[in-house]
Amino acid sequence: MNFPIVAPSILAADFANLQRDVELINRSEADWFHIDVMDGVFVPNISFGFPVMEAVRRHATKPLDVHLMIVQPERYIDAFAKAGAAAITVHYEACTHLHRTLTQIREAGCRAGVALNMQTPVEALADLTDAFDQVLIMTINPGFGGQKLLPLSIPKVQKMQRLLAMARSNALIGVDGGIDARTMGPVLDAGAHYFVAGTSVFGAKDPLDAVRTLKHLAPTKPLA
Ligand SMILES: O=C(CO)[C@H](O)[C@H](O)COP(=O)(O)O
């Protein structure tokens, strides 16, 4: 696998034309579909659940990267794995027993991901670096698409990159929120491998071109 990996967020798609938008991403240079599941408790918004996830899966030809912004995500890991998730990311802040939940994700046959909200320091994961395959640094306060990337998150990506290097972990670093052709460069330089982008892709006049721009912002490199 090479990076940068581009993962358009379905949250910003036109749900009345979901099949059209999924097929658009199939044709694009994007690598993954990003599926934002929100419960109205962990974040102040409700997005969608299994019916939409399954509709995306029926038409998608690329891996589904599921981001659970829900409390007690362990209740739904197996169901999302069955619904076709290739990767499942849970929030550090939403898990009482994070190690157990990450193990459950791997046992369900998916890549295990953990997301960190703005206030959570990267050191919170220092003892668990063997337990996840990807880490998602939130570059906004989660809950809504269309927000501006918070610059405070950029040094955090760098810190995470150092922490993983020290631990000799090959986990991928992702960023989520306010990613576009202007903001992607600094987070890429800071060490991010995958880039979740909603508004800048689906809100663009030409989403195929928007994905291409992100994908070619820097020469692709092989992952460790
Ligand atoms: O997790 C999310 C919101 O909580 C979305 O993935 C994120 O906001 C991406 O959308 P945009 O590119 O519009 O910021």
UniProtKB/TrEMBL annotation:
Keywords: Carbohydrate metabolism, Cobalt, Isomerase, Manganese, Metal-binding, Zinc. GO terms for molecular function: D-ribulose-phosphate 3-epimerase activity; metal ion binding. Its EC number is 5.1.3.1. Substrate binds at residues 9, 67, 143-146, 176-178, 198-199. It comes from the Bacteria. GO terms for biological process: pentose catabolic process; pentose-phosphate shunt. The active site is at residues 36, 176. The keyword Zinc applies. It catalyses: D-ribulose 5-phosphate = D-xylulose 5-phosphate. Gene3D superfamilies: Aldolase class I. A divalent metal cation binds at residues 34, 36, 67, 176. Pfam families: Ribul_P_3_epim. Pathway: Carbohydrate degradation. One of its GO terms (cellular component) is cytoplasm. It is an enzyme of class 5 (isomerase). Catalyzes the reversible epimerization of D-ribulose 5-phosphate to D-xylulose 5-phosphate. Belongs to the ribulose-phosphate 3-epimerase family. This is Ribulose-phosphate 3-epimerase.
